Amino acid sequence: MPLSTDDVRHIAKLARLHLSEEEVERFSRELSSILNYIDQLQEVDTSAVEATAQITGLTNSFREDAVAPQEANPEALLATSPLPIVERQIETPSAHG
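Given the sequence above, the corresponding structure tokens read:
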């Protein structure tokens, strides 16, 4: 089921994409290839395959909440700022110009 260049232009318009003519030609071939592969997958018999949402077998795998006290070093935190530090505060540009 090959996609025409008009189909690709229409899809691009719906997606608000601006494509060059070269891209339209390339995507026409690539999207057609993808659709052909999907057609092949549709032929696979999956009637004996059980539906599953995930394969790990884990359910409700939660961790305990634990508070890890950490001591922040104000000097080290201030040192990460690219802005100037004045009286242990980061000086930011004025919002009023």
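DSSP finds three helices and two strands in the chain. Try to locate this feature in the token string yourself.
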